[in-house]
Amino acid sequence: MNHIWGLLAHPGREWRNIDSEKESITHLYAHHVLLMALIPVVSAFIGTTQIGWHLGGEVTKVAMPTGAVLGITFYILMLLGVAIMGNVIHWMSDSFASRPSRRRCIVFAGYVATPLFIAGLSLLYPKAWLLVAVGIIALAYSGYLLYVGMPAFLRIPVNEALTISGGTLAIGVLLLELILALTVALWGLGFDDYAVSWSLFR
């Protein structure tokens, strides 16, 4: 919780604090990623099964079993996404003499994703305008964490941080869209029919 507040309140100083801990990937996942990734998953499960999507004036709810399956899938994809983004950052920093290790890059990616995890609270009330507004703010702040953290945590020169931050953020957005697309694709493969069957059974 200290790191979360620090990254939101004073990111420059907090990156240095995180750097001093020499955190392992296992510790990152056990104490941060596994817990933070539950925020959007649990929020989406509650929002879609209890409140429902507001589409064209109509409310569409998801059946509980369907929501559980989609939630687990979404959760696994997010955990993989952090590792993938860490490897992307490691690859993009290949041209620097002080190239950060893969471990540092994955730890970096895990903390950069913090605003996106917190933004998942908006899924408790799944309205498109709210999700878009909160998502834009979260992406913007993640971009800021990238820019501040590159020199403070990854030792990448300040004059190169903006370029790499922009490229990394663009790839991150594409990865996020891919995760959402895969989740929606699962819905299209038949979970929607299962939702109808569950509703009729009840």
From TrEMBL:
Domain of life per record: Bacteria
Principal subcellular localization = membrane
Segments passing through the bilayer:
28-48, 68-93, 105-125, 131-154, 166-189
Q: Where is the Yip1 domain?
A: 5-178
| Pfam families assigned | Yip1 (PF04893)
Q: Please tell me whether the keyword Transmembrane is annotated for this protein.
A: yes
Question: What protein name is recorded for this chain?
Answer: YIP1 family protein
Q: Which GO terms describe its cellular component?
A: membrane
How does the record classify its membrane topology? Multi-pass membrane protein
What are the protein's UniProt keywords? Membrane, Transmembrane, Transmembrane helix
Upper lineage ranks?
Bacteria, Pseudomonadati, Pseudomonadota, Gammaproteobacteria, Pseudomonadales
UniProt subcellular location = Membrane
Q: Does the keyword Methyltransferase apply?
A: no
